[in-house]
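Lecture 7 notes: from sequence to structure.

We start with a single chain of 650 residues. Read the sequence below before looking at the structure.
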Amino acid sequence: MSNYSSMKLEFLALKWAITEKFREYLLGTAFTVYTDNNPLSYLQTAKLAAVEQRWASELASFNFYIKYRPGAANRNADALSRQPNTPAVHSISDIVPGFNIPSQTTGSKKYSPTQPQLTGNVIAVDAAPVREKADLQALQATDPVVKAFLPYWRRGRPPDRAERSREPNQVLELVRQWRRIKEKGNVLYREVQMPPSRQTVHQLLLPKALQVEVLTSLHDNHGHQGAERTTALVRERCYWPNMRSDIDQWCKECERCIIAKAVRPSVRTSKPLEVVAIDFTTLERASDGREHVLVVTDVFSKFTQAYPTSDQKAHTVVKILTEKWFYTYGVPKRIHSDQGRNFEGELLKRLCQLYGIAKSRTTPYHPEGNGRCERFNRTLFDLLRCLPGEKKRKWPQLLPQLVFAYNTTVHQSTGHSPYELMFGQKPQLPVDLLLGQADEEPASITPDDWVTKHQDHLASVYVAAKKHLEAAATAREQRQPPTTTAILPVGTLVYRKNHVLGRRKFQDVWESTVYQVVKCLDNVGTVYKIQSRSNPEQQKTVHRSELRPITERGVLVSEPLVAPPPPRQRDETPPLGNASEDEDSNSSLLSGFISSPCNVSSIAEQEPAPDPSPQRLALCPWKNLQVSQRAIHPLLKGQKQPSSSCWDQR
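Now the structure, written as tokens:
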């Protein structure tokens, strides 16, 4: 039953309710069935499989009519599915299971009612660990960074040049925030204005002892959102030097994010018609009976055409590609598609051989490989959704207008419109004529001059578009590193892609089982043999795209608090042959005045500064497994503290 579609499940519920639950009341009576499942309302004309036909035969003895009702209006049925009687809850963990809130016994007062007869069903709520001002002041006073900053703050004057040269970069980062630092109740804050409302926010100068606790609360226990959203949550509340790099490291090494989120590699092209991607999508049946759309997208320019069809046959694909794309825009060098039978058949293969076109396809269980078409499909759905209700049934007639609007709009990843990149000139819209902004070519220009001007314009536009595409791809890869291309050495611990059957909306992208690379079966790192760590006899041969290396979450150590060497006195004569040492000394002195980002790759390898307060070490990203990778974390040993977060439960 887990493999049933939503229509099949609704049909099964309808059959059970009529033929079993309410049979005695409905037999011999005409009645109406209201459902929020639109396909179920076409039950009498739908093509049914053997199981559905058997269910329909059981319903044949009843006289009823099925009507569709939108989900927002189907509230009476939704009310019946709600559980009215909820058992009494006796702890905050039962109410909010996603947060591990320890009870705070210090300073708490017990209350005993003097009138027991007035006592009802009392819910005992554990006290949240509220930090008092004195606690925050003590933690800041013992923090290595804030402790070094406090003497300058107490005297009311920033450090001079000689004092700056003796302080590490993290302390100098606080010095650069001198005008923003405010003191409230002997606790230091940073005052900033948050966009877009310019609201003033006081960010706590967070001690190192609380960083892991804050990141666990705002990331692990707050839905495992990405680095950007987690940074926004942290920035509204607190601040510490090199905060952004620490948050990026925390999110990158999060076990649940690694398992549950997919990696989307970027396809790089250099000119139009180098790679053309094709894909089918299905919409609501139009008034003329068509419900399928063949999407054809040029990967470089993002120029897209969408062709309504009545089927998804290979003959239809070949005919549209030949008559509407090849004869209009040109023959591409490569066609990219998924592994649908209509795209992998003999007919399309012969078409590619006839025109000398290379054919590529996505790997199994990997729709991201054709992400350009998939992304346009989502944009197309948004455009169609904005149509008036009376025009939505006529979407095939309006589709060219919507696609033209998309092609003439500047694309974010290229900085130009798809139309301009495809044809070498800006599109002329009706509003340009209204505003008198239509381009006017001189009447005396010759065809050769126009071709030269056109080529120069195309060259400049292509260079700018390639820079935008490279920057956009690099930004995506920095936000989500491409873990499906690097060669995996033997012994690497990896996760395998999860191919669970049934509905996969909320399933993890990667299996929680830890595998180890046993052997690379080719010389380019494409196919590997892996075995389970818990069961070495369980071996599999998989493609590289099915594997993701495991990144271990270590201790947050932004930089070692080591002061740069003192500058050499002017009267000292520099020794011969030490020019490199002088450059290192000058660069370290200069780093006191210029902010340098945290070296994320060395965060987990550095030894943390001594801290008087205990700190939870999140070392092992999987449960019941001791991991010791020689070259990564030789100093880290221990067990990750168990979490009661609902996001961490498997």
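Residues 447-479 form the longest helix (33 residues). Keep this in mind for problem set 3.
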